[in-house]
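Before going further, learn to read the protein records used in this course. The integers have meaning only within a learned vocabulary of local backbone shapes. To see the layout at work, look at the sequence and tokens printed below.
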Amino acid sequence: MSGRLHSISEAAAVLGVSKFTVRRLIDAGEIKAVNVAARRMIPSSEVDRVMVHGTGRARQRKGEAGAQAQESATPVHGGMA
């Protein structure tokens, strides 16, 4: 594996979330991390992936929001002409 490794604090700052959120996402398998000298480190490629594509939950929420927006934008014909 090549590339820079980010600490949980660094990854949280880059992603704009808390350290707790990064830890939770690692534990849930949404962000890949490696153990280096008893520290969990996140490869820069993984931070980049999350910035571009989000996590599974973020993608799911984004999809749900898009579906709701489409439903609300669909005209409703209630008999009035």
Q: What stands out?
A: The domain at 5-66 is CATH 1.10.1660.10 (Multidrug-efflux Transporter Regulator; Chain: A; Domain 2). The chain has one domain: 5-66. The mean pLDDT is 80. The helical segments are 8-15, 19-27, 44-53, 56-73.
